[in-house]
Amino acid sequence: xxxxxxxxxxxxxxxxxxxxxxxxxxxxxxxxxxxxxxxxxxxxxxxxxxxxxxxxxxxxxxxxxxxxxxxxxxxxxxxxxxxxxxxxxxxxxxxxxxxxxxxxxxxxxxxxxxxxxxxxxxxxxxxxxxxxxxxxxxxxxxxxxxxxxxxxxxxxxxxxxxxxxxxxxxxxxxxxxxxxxxxxxxxxxxxxxxxxxxxxxxxxxxxxxxxxxxxxxxxxxxxxxxxxxxxxxxxxxxxxxxxxxxxxxxxxxxxxxxxxxxxxxxxxxxxxxxxxxxxxxxxxxxxxxxxxxxxxxxxxxxxxxxxxxxxxxxxxxxxxxxxxxxxxxxxxxxxxxxxxxxxxxxxxxxxxxxxxxxxxxxxxxxxxxxxxxxxxxxxxxxxxxxxxxxxxxxxxxxxxxxxxxxxxxxxxxxxxxxxxxxxxxxxxxx
Length: 430
Known about the structure:
Elements: H1 3-25, E1 33-40, E2 51-54, E3 57-68, E4 71-79, E5 89-94, E6 101-106, E7 120-122, H2 129-148, H3 152-212, H4 215-220, H5 224-253, E8 255-265, E9 270-282, E10 285-294, E11 311-320, E12 323-330, E13 333-340, E14 351-358, E15 364-366, E16 369-371, E17 375-383, E18 388-395, E19 402-412, H6 414-429
Parallel strand pairs: 1-7, 2-6
Antiparallel strand pairs: 1-4, 2-3, 3-4, 5-6, 8-9, 8-19, 9-10, 10-11, 11-12, 12-13, 13-14, 14-17, 15-16, 17-18, 18-19
Helix pairs in contact: 3-5, 3-6, 5-6
C-alpha cells in the first residue's frame, strides 16, 4: 500500500470522526420537532438548551430565550408525535433547591384540543427561591418584632395571660375554699376503705363458721335455702366493696391540664384563641373540651375571616408511643387528627408535627367565596419548656390557605382533678 493511499485513508477517517464530533457537540438530531413558545415575567435563570419535560418525561429542548416588550419568551422544540393539549401549564422547574433548571409542562385535557405548532402560550410565573426566602424572613422578622415590641399580637398575648391569671386565681380561691372539705373527705374515704377491709375479714370468718355449722347462726341456716341467701348477700357486699376501691383508685390516677393557645394570622392582622381542659382518666387516654376560635366580634381586622368563630372543641384521644390520635368535634364540626413526636425518647424531644382534617361536609358561601372542600391543616410546634410552646400552622390547604403563628400555655392543676374525682364519686353514689 502506497503512502498516498495511507494518507487518503487517514484523511477520510479524520473527516468522518470530525463530522461525528460536530454532529454530537452541535446538538444535531435526525428527530423531527415542532415549535411552541411560552411567555413569562421571570424565568428564574432558565438556561438555553435546558430540557423540556412533560409530566416528568423529557420531550424536547429550549431553543432560545429572548425578551419581547415586558415579557420573556421561551421558544421550545417539542418532539413530533407528542401532543400538548390546551390548558397545559408551563412553568420553570428545578431538580432540587440548588439543582439545574428545566421547563416543566403539566399536561392539559385532551377534550380541549391540541396546541398548534408555532403558538404562543402564557406560562405560569413561579416565585423565585430568593424572593420566597426573603418573604419568609420578613414575615418571621415582623412576628419577632411584634412579640418584642408593644404590637397588637404582644398585646393580645398579654390579654390572654391576664385572663388566664384571673381564671387561675379564681380556681385557686375555689380550691382553697374547698381544700379542707376535700382533705376531710379523702381522710374519711381512707377510713371507710380500712373499715371495709376489716368487715370483709370478719365476714370471711363468719361465713367459714356458718359453713361449718358452728353457733346459733350455723344452726339457723342449716336450711340449704337460707344458707344460699346469706352467701349471696355476703357476695354482694364483697362486690360493692371492690367497686368502691376501684373508684377510689381512679380518683387518685385522674390528671387534669389547663390548655390555652393564641393563633396570630398575618393575613388578618390579628388572631383568635383556644382554651379548655384536658382530662386524663388513665395513662394514654384523654378527653378535651373547650372554646375554639374565641374572638371579640367588636374588634376589627384588615382581612376577611373565613373560619367559624366562637365555637367549641370536644374530642377524645389516644397516646400511642410517638403518635397522638384524636377525633370528635373540631371547631364546631366533625374532625380528626394526628400528632407525631419524631424525636421521642431523645434529648431533642421538643418538636411535634400535626395534621388535621375537619368540616368534611362543608358547603357554604363566605364573603362571595364558595367553600365545598374539607378543611386540612398541617403544622409544627416547638416546646420552649413544659409550660410554653411556639409553632406555625398552615390552615385550610384545600381552599383558602393561610399561615398562623401560635403560642400555647399548658399546665397541670391537681386541685381540679380532686374536685372532678369527688364529683364522679357523688354521681356514682346517686
